[in-house]
């Protein structure tokens, strides 16, 4: 980064959950930050939407502005920390900041996932850097770990819990039997959720993070729409109870596997074998399992959301910019390069897994036989099956759940079978289908 003298001036775009955490660390730990970066780091401005909102945070009122020009046109500001979120006008602000010679630190996974190529091209054009440690897995330094610590490896696969809100909800449903809506409200209250929490629960936020991980680990430039994704919003408490009965926890996973068939990417609630490290990650915690060809299995764990854990990653990036490491890494890693060669994506014909399926069926003779016939016609074999007696109190003709676990099956075959099963007049669609990770 440019600039001389003893202090570096930062402009914050956003002073919400993450922004106020960043301001707090920079102000409360000013001495520690300046010792580690060799310069004092000052926050001069913070951009907000609503200047009247009471802000108990550490920044004095006169440094809060609604005028982005005041920040982008200020020559003293050399680092823009973008923690406002969203795509527009954020993208325009960052393109302008880079053009004005400022380095960018961002926590905005949606923006990187959708506009990484454009942003990184702009940074290269103007000789600036973009750092984004907080965009995946909050406080866990996974971007550095994959981009630098594991640089000797070809990553072969990863499995990650990277949405704190969903993991918090699933944990609250599993441990406390909390209904989905109550668990979501609590996650929002604790500052884990996105401004629009649909992005969390429908899997979009996890897909954004997987797009970034795919870039880091495989050099794959993918946009979110290319990643098959399923959220936790259609799960029932009953699915979690059945999974527990079968010996599994339900986790929203980001999965990537590199094989001769190509790169398989997916986001889906998945049954994870109890007792494995991923199954035991609870609350807002995140974890990333990375398998490299030299290092083998690695596991990274920590808080994936919330004010200070996320700010921890943002401030680490600011320090990297100040000491010049960000610029070096930015050039060496050459991410979202326009001339990069992206691996081809595997098709669902090439994806194999075991699957959990829940059907709501009429409690009548011959229904299980009809379902297993369709599965058999598609070459899918059943490993186990659960149907509980609904009891005498259950209203007549009300549908009952039938759960079955398959042996290894080709995803495309299972999808075709489920389409057929959902058309049977004894089945109440939609049926639920989740992958299984042992
Ligand atoms: P937030 O609490 O909603 O804060 C957003 C801040 O940006 C607020 O101060 C808001 O102003 C300001 N802002 C938003 N749009 C603006 C606009 N158009 N013009 C001016 N100011 C604007 O969001 P957050 O949770 O801190 O998240 C910020 C970013 O970090 C997002 O990209 C998010 O995905 C990412 N992130 C969040 C977490 C987390 O745990 N929360 C973790 C990792 C990454 P007002 O205060 O006036 O509304
Ligand atoms: N809403 C996100 C989550 C914030 O819950 O994980 C961290 O990226």
Describe the protein.
The chain has 438 residues and is of the alpha/beta class. It has 3 domains: 157 residues, Rossmann fold, CATH 3.40.50; 162 residues, Dihydrodipicolinate Reductase, domain 2, CATH 3.30.360; 86 residues, ACT domain (Alpha-Beta Plaits, 2-Layer Sandwich), CATH 3.30.70. 37% of the residues lie in helices and 25% in strands. The strands form 2 sheets. Strands 7, 8, 9, 10, 11, 12, 13, 14, 15 and 16 form a 10-stranded mixed β-sheet that branches. Strands 3-2-1-4-5-6 form a 6-stranded parallel β-sheet, with helices on both faces. A hairpin with a 2-residue loop joins strand 8 and strand 9. The radius of gyration is 24 Å and the shape is elongated. The chain starts with 6 loop residues before the first strand and ends with a strand. The structure holds NADP nicotinamide-adenine-dinucleotide phosphate (NAP) and L-homoserine (HSE). L-homoserine (HSE) binds next to helix 7.
Strand content: 25-35%
**Count of DSSP helices?**
15
The total strand number stands at 16
Sum up the overall morphology in one term.
elongated
Helix percent band: 25-40%
Largest sheet: 10 strands, mixed
> What top-tier CATH class of the largest domain fits best?
Alpha Beta
Low-confidence segments, ≥5 residues, pLDDT <50? none
Cofactors and ligands:
NADP nicotinamide-adenine-dinucleotide phosphate, L-homoserine
CATH topology-level name of the largest domain: Dihydrodipicolinate Reductase, domain 2
* CATH architecture classification name of the largest domain: 2-Layer Sandwich
Q: Compute the gyration radius: what is it? A: 24 Å
Estimate the mean pLDDT confidence.
94
Multimeric state: single chain
* Overall structural domain count: 3
> What is the CATH homologous superfamily assignment of the largest domain?
Dihydrodipicolinate Reductase, domain 2
Q: Strand pairing plus helix content: what structural class? A: alpha/beta
Distance between the termini: 46 Å
């Amino acid at each position: 980064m440019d600039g001389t003298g003893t202090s570096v001036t930062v402009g914050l775009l956003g002073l919400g959950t993450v922004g106020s955490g960043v301001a707090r660390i920079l102000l409360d730990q000013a001495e520690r930050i300046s010792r580690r970066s060799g310069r004092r780091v000052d926050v001069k401005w913070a951009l907000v939407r609503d200047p009247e909102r009471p802000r108990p945070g550490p920044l004095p009122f006169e440094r809060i502005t609604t005028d982005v020009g005041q920040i982008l046109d200020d020559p003293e500001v050399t680092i823009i920390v973008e923690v406002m979120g969203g795509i527009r006008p954020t993208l325009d602000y960052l393109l302008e900041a880079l053009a004005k010679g400022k380095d960018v630190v961002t926590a905005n996974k949606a923006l990187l996932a959708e506009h990484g190529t454009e942003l990184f091209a702009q940074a290269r054009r103007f000789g600036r850097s973009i750092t984004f440690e907080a965009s995946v897995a909050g406080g866990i330094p996974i971007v550095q770990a994959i981009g630098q610590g594991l640089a000797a490896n070809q990553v072969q696969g990863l499995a990650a819990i990277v949405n704190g809100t969903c993991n918090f909800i699933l944990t609250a449903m599993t441990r406390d039997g909390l209904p989905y809506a109550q668990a979501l409200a609590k996650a929002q209250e604790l500052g884990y959720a996105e401004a629009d929490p649909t992005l969390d629960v429908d899997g979009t936020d996890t897909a954004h993070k997987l797009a970034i991980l795919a870039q880091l680990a495989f050099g794959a430039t993918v946009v979110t729409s290319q990643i098959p994704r399923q959220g936790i919003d259609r799960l029932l408490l009953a699915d979690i109870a059945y999974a527990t009965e079968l010996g599994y926890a339900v986790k929203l996973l980001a999965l990537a596997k590199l094989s001769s068939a190509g790169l398989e990417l997916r986001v889906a609630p998945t049954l994870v074998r109890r007792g494995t490290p991923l199954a035991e990650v609870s609350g807002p915690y995140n974890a990333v399992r990375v398998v490299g060809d030299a290092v083998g299995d690695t596991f990274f764990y920590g808080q994936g959301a919330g004010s200070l854990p996320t700010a921890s990653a943002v401030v680490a990036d600011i320090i990297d910019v100040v000491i010049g490491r960000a610029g070096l890494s930015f050039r060496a890693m050459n991410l979202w390069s326009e001339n990069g060669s992206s691996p081809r994506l595997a098709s669902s014909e090439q994806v194999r897994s075991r699957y959990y399926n829940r059907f709501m069926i009429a409690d009548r003779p011959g229904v299980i036989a009809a379902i297993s016939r369709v599965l058999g016609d598609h070459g899918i074999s059943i490993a186990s099956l659960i149907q509980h007696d609904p009891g005498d109190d259950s209203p007549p003709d009300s549908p009952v759940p039938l759960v079955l676990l398959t042996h290894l099956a080709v995803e495309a075959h299972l999808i075709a079978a489920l389409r057929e099963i959902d058309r049977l007049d004894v089945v109440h669609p939609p049926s639920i289908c989740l992958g299984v990770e042992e």
